[in-house]
Specification:
The chain has about 700 residues and is of the alpha/beta class. The protein has five domains: about 90 residues, mini-chromosome maintenance (MCM) complex, chain A, domain 1 (2-Layer Sandwich), CATH 3.30.1640; about 160 residues, OB fold (Dihydrolipoamide Acetyltransferase, E2P) (Beta Barrel); about 180 residues, Rossmann fold (3-Layer(aba) Sandwich); about 80 residues, Orthogonal Bundle (Helicase, Ruva Protein, domain 3); about 70 residues, Winged helix-like DNA-binding domain superfamily/Winged helix DNA-binding domain (Arc Repressor Mutant, subunit A, Orthogonal Bundle). The chain is about 40% helix and about 20% strand. The protein has 24 helices and 27 strands. It has a five-stranded mixed β-barrel with strand order 4-8-9-11-10. Helix 22 crosses helix 24.
């Protein structure tokens, strides 16, 4: 009787609050089989019914589903397999705050999908046949265990005999698509030292297959438990939990997890109105680290990023900015990476030598989670989707990651083709990477690709590459040392203040001065919200003046090759695209909807600084983008061509095996330095062009 009353209340609620949605569902049924009901509407209609949904969801959802399937629709459609799904719960439970009191209740859990199995059928109503009387009957399946009959069902006309094994009629049984996903806490929600916690969720029917690893989601469902077993099959007093998913909501909006109040918005606009807001943002990046102003400016631009674009022909142009820091040990590369991730509204920090099978990109694995099925597991770049991924020691990454990184950085997707799984995951994030030279210290006379175990094709995908060298310089060393000492001094006083609650009178004034230097110009919490608000609302467009500035810079540098065909290529179209992205980020940093000539000039300065650091031919002093993009310079290529011609000429006199000394003598006559010729010969040997069959002679590999 009570059940009938509840069903009637549901019917009344559906007619009052969901009629238009019901008509829409009946028109698209059975392609779409779910009616999404807002919990807030239920609470408004009948608080008792809403409480019932939370406290006894199994009974309440069953009643609601019965009411939905029995609705008399004007379209004449019978919604006999429709699902009722609850969304917009007032309270979201954090994974680490789940307790035993939540078991059996309806909860909404927000998290990041780190793993997802293939979608496979699960039997929901198993049909069996008795081997004696051939009576056919069915058993509804729920939970994680398969329920089999032990005797023929007399109530439905069977013989009632106990049978060891009934025949399962697969063709008459009912199935639903099912998928298992793992939800993990978002990295930005964790405090220092906390390990992310996770919970598995089971999704069925039309909400299965809707998510991929890297998605941020809210799963509403019934929290269930099952008893743990030892490796020998014995039960333990401990239980594990999982979520029996009822509904799934994808978080599509940029940084949707960051709540910005009206008061926050007022502070954001007030900050943007200040004339020195851009300088303040730069000063807010790792103030305890001395110097590196250009790198800190680039990191500010990376936080805001350019505008991602989708063209009419469905081509996508990334807006995210990729930065690489290459340098000597002890120059604060790792500290800069960790600081930026703390500031980013959405960010993830990892090492190049990742321990999981997914590595930096993604992988298809078969493990315990998949229960025999293949599982898609997301790596760092996929998990950082729509944010920033900081990868320390990227030079130590696995080969498979190095291969996949080309696509992940430019197309911003990660493709997987393994064991019949064809998947494409999003990696729409900015990459901030750090690498150490393999020989200890950075050598500006050796191509970066040779120093950090990264192919030139990958290096060319970084918008900005900075070298951080530790070279003795009295003035610079004095300033750096003073800053480090003052930082430690401030830290000592803060530790004393926290412990004793007081600072000596003599130290108070000095402490105030030092603390002011160390304190970020913009508080971290406000900066996070400032970045999130800007990326949600600001989509700047280039002015004509800005376009002309970019054009002048690009054509001006390329111009040296217009009359001299032998001139090196100073910049490519990739650097021009990087300039545009940086210009858009500069406008976003000041909450402007236009990229101005001033923005263009500022970012041209940043790009020029990088080009001079990493793309300057050490022999000629000219810009040559091949130094990064190819791993050699035009000067060296020309020299190698000349040496090949010399060897071919000497083959006429000596045959295939040519004396090295003869090559060196002839090259010297043509104006080449002996040590540089020896270097080119060594490179040609390493590349498999030449080899030495015996001492003192060289020969072409044919």
């Amino acid at each position: 009787m009570m059940q009938d009353l509840v069903t009637e209340r549901w019917e009344d609620f559906l007619k009052r609050y969901c009629w238009n949605d019901l008509i829409e569902l009946s028109n698209s049924y059975p392609e779409h089989r779910s009616l999404f009901v807002k919990f807030t509407d239920m609470d408004l209609y009948d608080p008792t019914l809403a409480d019932m949904i939370l406290e006894t969801p199994d009974v309440a959802i069953a009643s609601a589903t019965d009411a939905l399937r029995e609705m008399d629709m004007p379209t004449g459609v019978t919604l006999d397999e429709a699902n009722l799904r609850i969304i917009n719960l007032l309270r979201k439970v954090k994974i680490r705050e789940i307790r035993s009191g939540d078991i059996g209740k309806l909860v909404a859990i927000e998290g990041m999908v780190t793993k997802a199995t293939e979608v496979r059928p699960r039997v929901v109503e198993a049909v069996f046949e008795c081997p004696f009387c051939h009576h056919i009957f069915s058993i509804l399946q729920s939970g994680r265990q398969f329920k089999e009959p032990i005797e023929c069902d007399q109530e439905s006309g069977g013989c009632g005999r106990k049978v060891q094994r009934f025949k399962l009629l697969v063709e008459k049984s009912k199935f639903a698509n099912a998928q298992k996903v793992r939800l993990q806490e978002s990295p930005e929600e964790l405090k220092g030292g906390e390990l992310p916690q996770a919970v598995d969720a089971y999704l069925e029917d039309d909400i299965s297959g809707e998510v991929t690893p890297g998605n941020r989601v809210i799963v509403t469902g019934i929290l269930r438990s099952y008893q743990r077993m030892t490796q020998f099959g014995k039960t333990t007093p401990f239980f594990d939990i999982y979520l029996d998913g009822n509904s799934l909501e994808l978080k599509e909006e940029e940084f949707e997890e960051i709540l910005i109040t009206d008061e926050d918005e007022r502070k954001i606009k007030e900050l943007a109105s200040q004339s020195d807001v851009y300088e303040k943002l730069i000063r807010s990046i790792a103030p305890s680290i001395y110097g590196h102003a250009e790198i800190k400016e680039a990191m500010v631009l990376q936080l805001f990023s350019g505008v991602p674009k989708e063209l009419p022909d469905e081509t996508r142009i990334r807006g995210d900015i990729h930065i690489l820091l290459v340098g000597d040990p002890g120059v604060a590369k790792s500290q800069l990476l960790t600081y930026l991730i703390r500031l980013a509204p959405r960010g993830l920090y990892t090492g190049g030598k990742s321990t999981s099978a997914a590595g930096l990109t993604a992988a298809a694995v078969r493990d315990e989670f998949g229960e025999g099925r293949w599982t898609l597991e997301a790596g760092a770049l996929v998990l950082a989707d729509k944010g920033i991924a900081a990868v320390d020691e990227i030079d130590k990454m696995e080969k498979k990651d190095r291969d996949a990184l080309h696509e992940a950085m430019e197309q911003q997707t990660v493709s997987i083709a393994k064991a019949g799984i064809m998947a494409r995951l999003n990696s729409r994030c900015g990459l901030l990477a750090a690498a150490n030279p393999k020989f200890g210290r950075f050598d500006k006379y050796t191509p970066i690709a040779e120093q950090i175990n990264m192919p030139p094709t990958l290096l060319s995908r970084f918008d900005l590459i900075f070298t951080m060298m530790d070279r003795p310089n009295e003035e610079q060393d004095m300033k750096t040392a003073e800053h480090i000492i003052e930082t430690h001094y401030a830290g000592e006083l803060i530790a004393r203040l926290k412990s004793t609650g007081k600072v000596a009178e003599a130290d108070k004034e000095r402490f105030g001065q030092v603390n002011q230097i160390m304190e970020p110009a913009v508080a971290a919490d406000l900066l996070r919200k400032y970045v999130a608000w800007s990326k949600r609302n600001m989509f700047p467009v280039m002015t004509e003046d800005a376009k002309n500035k970019f054009l002048e810079f690009y054509i001006g540098l390329r111009g040296q090759g217009y009359e001299d065909e032998e001139a090196p290529v100073p910049v490519t179209a990739r650097q021009l695209e990087a300039l545009i992205r940086l210009g858009e980020a500069r406008a976003r940093a000041e909450l402007r909807d236009q990229v101005t000539a001033e923005d263009a000039e500022r970012v041209i300065g940043v790009v020029t600084y990088c080009l001079k650091q990493v793309s300057t031919d050490p022999e000629t002093g000219k810009l040559d983008t091949d130094w990064v993009a190819v791993g050699t310079t035009k000067t060296k290529r020309d020299r190698a061509r000349s040496i090949r011609e010399i060897i071919k000429e000497l083959e006429k006199d000596y045959g295939d095996e040519v004396p090295v000394e003869e090559v060196l003598d002839l090259a010297e006559e043509e104006g080449m330095e002996r040590d540089k010729v020896e270097e080119i010969i060594d490179v040609m040997k390493r590349d498999g062009i030449l080899f030495s069959p015996s001492g003192g002679v060289i020969k072409f590999v044919r």
